[in-house]
Write a structure and sequence with these properties.
mainly alpha
């Protein structure tokens, strides 16, 4: 009877790990390959699978260490091309996680191997991907050239991951240059390799997220929704997959917010914030959460979420400026949005700010600045050609005409904007346009039509839970504070006074200073011709303000 082969158990674990990897059972693959590696160091191919499995179950630090070991193994096996590819892949992964210095170190290693041995290999293409990513914002033309080189290299060597990355980088660079139609072709082509299951799981997750972000950048919500649904299905097919679930939840939540499913969006975002704790992507989750709180009039929660987003997003605009507007701090809102617009470069970046700029400049009574922002937004919308951007532009044009006192000219434009938002299934934006239509009707001495528009808007706001918008619309309708001359903010303060809150408590609720609240209360007393909080409370109940 022969001696047992000690390597047999290791080989069995390796076979089990490879089989689990092929079946996309990442936790099993990681467990089996780790056990095999503990008994006997894995060869580089299996070590690569172990590193990828670690990433896919959320063990990023372990994955980085294993990838570094894989690199060293390839060096030891005198395989510089494979070592260079490994180093370049690791550089891309680290860069996507915000670890710039570490990424640069691995990029230098890959570059040195390629140049010292004059290698013509896929690693050259991955280095081009890094160049494309690095120069995207500052030199989009050079970024595009590098991305095209990466795609060509991937095609030459039959590396579908590289081809997909190259196409995504091409799309990003084309977007920055305003070539939206060409960018869409690249995005669609990148996703063909994903849906055809040609790329590796790690590459698939990166491509899904990158394409969805690009679709949001160009306001192509139909594509974004399609690929978000596909990403959701892809994640569900791999129960122990960790890295992309949080990203998927952010994308789903944004679509839900735009479609008016705010409660569902909240659920997604709370989970995403927990799942992404410590990850740079958490900034996007907190920003989206802040937007929902702002829209619901939950000022304190919105402020906190924007501050958390600031840990990863240097300037969370236009949301933060719009929050200042909600708080009644028009000067701060105007200063923030002016600075943000001044700093923004390119159609896409500026278009994300211009709609808010119009709203804030109108509130600041700077109609000239509002008109300039509306005209720029209209020009961008014409170049980009996306329905969402056109609806934003129509709304901005109508709001500006209204601010200029030309309600009659504003009405047909606003009706078109309302129709555009309706066709996009965007109830909140459509309701806000109805408020503008009501104001235009008031300018045209048609109070009955104005009242009907406001009633319809209030109904939608109440369904959504948009408390501040509902209060503002009621104030315009005269259903609350009729003939009182109270502003929307003063009505909000009056409700809290009627609720028995002190000035200090109201200041805490609205994130304002006690001095500001004292001024609001004084204005309320003057406008209502009352001299006490009790009398103001009585007015509130008599006029259905509470």
């Amino acid at each position: 009877m022969g001696e047992p082969d000690p390597s047999a158990g290791v080989r069995e674990l390796q076979d089990r790990g490879r089989a689990a990897y092929r079946r996309r059972i990442w936790a099993d693959a990681y467990a089996a390959l780790s056990a095999a590696d503990d008994d006997e160091p894995l060869p580089p191919d299996d070590l690569d699978l172990l590193a990828r499995s670690a990433y896919l179950i959320g063990k990023d630090a372990v994955g980085n260490d294993l990838a570094a070991r894989t690199y060293r193994e390839w060096i030891g096996h005198e395989e510089p091309a494979r070592a260079a590819r490994c180093a370049a892949w690791l550089a891309i992964s680290l860069l996507l996680h915000g670890e710039v210095a570490a990424s640069n170190g691995w990029r230098t290693r890959a570059k040195r191997l390629v140049e010292d041995d004059d290698l013509d290999c896929p690693a050259r293409g991955y280095l081009d991907v890094l160049t494309a990513m690095e120069r995207l914002e500052s030199e989009p033309a050079e970024s595009l050239a590098a991305a095209r080189n990466a795609t060509a290299c991937g095609e030459r060597f039959g590396d579908p991951d590289l081809v997909g990355f190259g196409q995504l980088c091409q799309a990003d660079a084309l977007i920055r240059q305003g070539e939206i139609t060409a960018a869409k072709h690249c995005l669609d082509e990148a996703m063909v390799s994903v849906t055809a299951d040609e790329v590796s799981p790690l590459a698939a997750g990166i491509l899904y997220c990158g394409v969805i972000i690009a679709c949001h950048d160009i306001f192509d919500l139909s594509r974004a929704q399609e690929w978000t649904a596909a990403l959701s299905r892809w994640c569900e097919e791999q129960p122990d997959l960790v890295p992309y679930r949080g990203n998927c939840q952010i994308h789903r939540a944004e679509i839900m917010r735009l479609r008016g499913a705010w409660s569902d969006a909240f659920d997604e975002l709370h989970e995403a914030c927990e799942r992404l704790a410590g990850n740079p992507t958490a900034g996007a989750a907190y920003y989206e959460l802040a937007e929902l709180h702002r829209l619901r009039g939950q000022v304190a929660q919105a402020e906190q979420a924007y501050r958390q987003a600031c840990r990863w997003i240097p300037d969370p605009q236009p949301g933060l400026a719009l929050l200042r507007l909600t708080q009644g701090n028009v000067d701060a809102a105007a200063a923030a949005i002016r600075r943000a617009v001044d700093e923004a470069d390119g159609d896409i970046a500026r278009s994300r700010l211009l709609g808010a700029a119009v709203e804030i400049m109108v509130a600041a009574k700077d109609v000239t600045a509002a008109r300039q922002a509306a005209e720029e937004l209209r020009a961008i919308a014409a170049r980009v050609g996306e329905p969402w951007l056109r609806a934003m532009s129509e709304t901005a044009d109508g709001a500006t005409l209204l601010a200029e006192g030309d309600g009659r000219a504003a009405l047909p434009i606003l009706r078109q904007a309302w129709s555009s938002w309706q066709s996009l299934a965007a109830p909140y934006e459509a309701a806000r346009v109805r408020v503008l239509m009501a104001q235009a009707c008031q300018q045209c001495d048609d109070p009955e039509s104005a009242e009907m528009e406001l009633d319809a808007a209030v109904w939608v706001f109440e369904q959504l839970g948009a408390a501040s918008d509902a209060a503002g619309a009621r104030a315009l309708s005269g259903a609350e504070g009729r003939d009182s001359g109270l502003t929307a903010r003063e009505l909000e303060v009056l409700r809290l006074v009627a609720g028995g809150l002190t000035n200090r408590a109201i200041a805490a609720e609205l994130i304002l200073s006690e001095k500001t609240i004292h001024r609001h209360v004084s204005n309320i007393f003057t406008k209502l011709d009352v001299s006490s909080r009790a009398a103001a409370t009585a007015y509130a109940y008599e006029n259905d303000v509470v």
